[in-house]
Give the backbone structure.
Amino acid sequence: MSLITTSEEGISLHNFYRNIGEKIHKARISKKITIDGLSMLSGLSSKTIEKYERGDNKVSFEVLIKLAAILNVPFEEFFKV
């Protein structure tokens, strides 16, 4: 089984979601919010947030919008390389 990659950039979908997860993690840490705290604020389970931060789960736009608002970061920040 292989990951789908874009032919021009060679970026796997897993790496794409891992990059988003790293941004979520950094924003959460910079705001001094624990995973449990973000869980309570967002209504997502702690396990789900952990999986988002590792890039193991795909994050929907709706969830990213919610997390951006909670973490007080621009939505676009999650997509910067």
